[in-house]
């Protein structure tokens, strides 16, 4: 965790009993850090494939046939 985030947490809470779910949910910077970490490092292993269904479709201007897998 960055020193900036650590300092934010240390200034928000002076003692361990002060740390509660409602109080932690008020820390916007921590929330953004967690969301960005989950975006970059998903909790599921690997990329989940997406399968094109009937009748196919156009993705980014290119025709993609049925049952084609995309990640």
UniProtKB/TrEMBL annotation:
Its cofactor is heme. This is Cytochrome P450. One of its GO terms (molecular function) is heme binding. It holds the Pfam family p450. Belongs to the cytochrome P450 family. Keywords: Heme, Iron, Metal-binding, Monooxygenase, Oxidoreductase. The keyword Coiled coil does not apply.
